[in-house]
Write a structure and sequence with these properties.
Layout (H helix, E strand, L loop, with lengths): L5 H12 L5 E7 L3 E2 L10 H9 L9 E6 L2 E6 L1 H11 L5 E7 L4 H10 L9 H10 L3 H12 L3 E2 L7 E2 L2 H11 L1 H15 L8 H14 L5 H8 L4 H11 L2 H14 L53
Helix pairs in contact: 2-3, 5-6, 7-8, 7-9, 8-9, 8-10, 9-12, 11-12
């Protein structure tokens, strides 16, 4: 091996330093930090309160600060400082800051605008499996429940696999363990592992359906009637009615009520107002005009979008 001269070593070190940000770290009291600049998004009090209620010291990232004219401008981390202030009860609380001394306002805005451009977010499956490795109870319980039906949690759609991981957690969080168990059990019994039977919209739609009607839904009748309808046909009916899991819930209700002497009432299916109906959409039986509307749902609500997996 050829030994480098001192000049070569210094040159190599200098070349490497161009990849190290010119920053230093300081603990700065929150009261000495300025945020809410024009390029930043509005502060979300809902997010601050929710994060504060689930505060974890090990999840705090350093706040990025641009020091201009002696003032500490926060250009990444405005929610972090508000969360810490709320939890600690004081704006005297210090936070670790990554301080830049050589930025101008326009450069800060550019960094803020492009900070997530090349960041690859974690997929629901990756988060779920990390929670399994961490030994977290909820994910272990869900995994064991899925495996009790000879199924597995997977990163992509395969026979015998469930890849709509976030949907499993959502149903568990919103309705509880027994509802999730009921959803999986009915799908297995009715469609016997058919492709797309464990899609996000299918599971969410079934959860809505079961939650609305409770003990009025008889599993044997559900299996007999819905088992005659393929998942593809259900999906077509759902798409024709309205988007997302509500369309699937309506498709399930249509199938369950077919040739039924005492059909389940339509109005019980809706706990929120409906989206605007399509112009050519027929009125469902017994549906009232003053049903509440299904709007934007909270963190633990059942969403109307198909879960995407890579």
């Amino acid at each position: 091996r050829i030994k480098m001269t001192d000049d070569q070593a210094i040159s190599e070190q200098t070349d490497l330093m161009q990849y190290v940000p010119k920053v230093h770290f300081e603990q700065i009291p929150i009261r000495n930090l300025v945020s809410n600049q024009e390029y930043q998004r509005n502060l979300s009090q809902h997010h601050v309160q929710r994060a504060a209620a689930n505060f974890d010291l090990y999840q705090i990232n350093p706040v990025k600060v641009s020091r201009r004219n002696g003032i500490n401008y926060v250009f990444n981390g405005q929610h972090t400082i508000e969360i810490v202030a709320l939890v600690s009860g004081s704006r005297e609380t210090p936070v670790w800051c990554m301080v830049y001394d050589d930025l101008v306002y326009e450069h800060e805005a550019d960094i803020f605008a492009n900070q997530m451009k090349y960041v690859k977010p974690l997929l629901p499956y990756e988060i779920f499996m990390a929670n399994i490795e961490a030994g977290n109870d909820k994910q272990l319980i869900i995994r064991d429940l899925v495996e009790s039906y000879d199924l597995s949690i997977t990163s992509s759609s395969v026979p015998g696999g469930i890849c709509a991981v976030a949907t499993l957690e959502t149903i568990h969080d919103k309705y509880g363990y027994h509802m999730l168990d009921h959803v999986i059990r009915l799908i297995v019994a009715t469609w016997e592992g058919a492709s797309q039977s464990f899609s996000a919209n299918m599971m969410n739609g079934l959860a809505r359906f079961l939650n609305a009607y409770g003990d009025a839904v008889k599993d044997d009748i559900f299996k007999e009637k819905l088992g005659r309808i393929s998942i593809k046909e259900l999906a077509r009916t759902a798409k024709d009615r309205r988007s997302g899991s509500l369309g699937f819930a309506e498709a399930l209700l249509i199938g369950y009520n077919k040739k039924c002497r005492n059909p389940l009432p339509w109005d019980k299916l809706y706990t929120h107002k409906l989206p605007q109906k399509k112009a050519d959409e027929p009125e469902p039986e017994k549906e009232t005009d003053d049903m509440p509307q299904s709007g934007q749902l909270d963190l633990f609500g059942l969403g109307d979008d198909e879960e995407v997996s890579e």
